Amino acid sequence: MTLEEKFNTVDDHYLCFDDIPEKDKPSLSRKLCAMLKIEKLIAPKCITFFAEHDELYFDAPPEDASLEDILYLARCGVMYDEDSCKVFT
Hints:
Elements: H1 3-9, H2 30-42, E1 49-52, E2 55-59, H3 67-75, E3 79-81, E4 84-88
Antiparallel strand pairs: 1-2, 2-4, 3-4
Helix pairs in contact: 2-3
């Protein structure tokens, strides 16, 4: 399953941040939780990001990221966009 297919599979969970158990939230900010998860998934590479209008783009997780990881990201408000991920600011 491709990364895009994984994101499409969990689309119903988009922005369901409250469904993430408190013990799995390193921050109260959904955007920060998403970035920390991405950073963990792409380590040892450093996360890169840029902003455009009201969107913040950053590295996509690797293709072998688990569906559980993608579900977490979707609940944080992450969307897949070609070769990167984005969240609205």
